[in-house]
Amino acid sequence: MSGSEGVQESPVASSRFHVSARDMAQVAVFAALIAALGLAGAITVGFSGVPITLQTLGVILAGAVLGPRKGVIAVAVFIALTLIGLPLLSGGRTGLTALAGPSAGYLVGWIPAVFVIGLLTVRILPKYPVVLGLLANAIGGIVVVYIFGTIGLLLRTDLSVWAAVSTNFAFVPGDLVKVVIATVVAKSVHRAYPGIVHT
User: Fold this and answer.
1) 26: number of Cβ within 10 Å
2) What is the Cα–Cα distance from 141 to 146, expressed in whole angstroms?
3) Are the C-beta atoms of 139 and 123 separated by less than 8 Å?
4) Does residue 173 contact residue 42 with C-beta atoms inside 8 Å?
5) How does pLDDT run across 135-145, given as a tens digit for each residue?
6) What pLDDT, in 10s, does the model give residues 73-124?
7) Who is most buried in 29, 99, 129, 195, counting CB within 10 A?
8) Residue 52 phi, psi (nearest 5)
9) CA–CA dist 198, 165 (Å, integer)
10) Of 96, 77, 86, 30, which is closest to residue 57 (Cα–Cα)?
């Protein structure tokens, strides 16, 4: 009996790692959305050199609409494109440029952020209560991103811990607006397409 005849793929494992054409299309759409949101440019505040950008809205939406698996893939695809040199980050930056600067932690934080948002979103489906949606998106899109961003500032700059933490304060109002927008959009999507998230 040959090795290929003696090994059969588990149906559970096969379905777990299967990515359908629809899944790939959704991933591509959200990766493109994050890129498109960068066309609005960026505003740099304070002396940290970290820009305010709309692209975090796309990251929050990816987790809130697609869930943890497809959301992470969408953000990872986008980041991979920037790392091979495509200037898709706000201000026409590449991933290598961002990772070499003070905003490195914020970019790295997008992956755990979308994963956390996706996990929390799965827990509140199928109803997707607005209050819980706001909380999930704020935890991932603000708290997680700020934690990684602060670590990046400490590693890439000479800022003190308090100065690095306080740098995030300028982003809070805009990020709260993004959380609200993402929650409203996600609520509408999950009402119209209740099966869009699957694990």
Assistant:
1) 20
2) 8
3) no
4) no
5) 999 999 999 99
6) 999 999 999 999 999 998 888 999 999 989 899 999 999 999 999 999 999 9
7) 99
8) -90, 125
9) 36
10) 30
Element (H, E) at 44: strand 43-44
Instruction: Determine the 3-state secondary structure of 51 from DSSP.
Output: strand
The residue type at 126: P
> pTM for the whole thing?
0.86
Q: From the DSSP assignment, how many helices (H) and strands (E) are in the chain? A: 10, 2
Query: Mutual orientation of helices 104-124 and 130-138 as an angle, nearest 10°?
Result: 150
Distances (CA, A) of 198 to 13, 18, 68: 15, 12, 9
In degrees rounded to 5, what are phi and psi of residue 43? -120, 125
Pairing status of strand 51-52 against strand 43-44 = antiparallel
Q: How many residues does the chain have?
A: 199
Element (H, E) at 43: strand 43-44
- What is the residue whose two structure tokens read 């066309």? 39
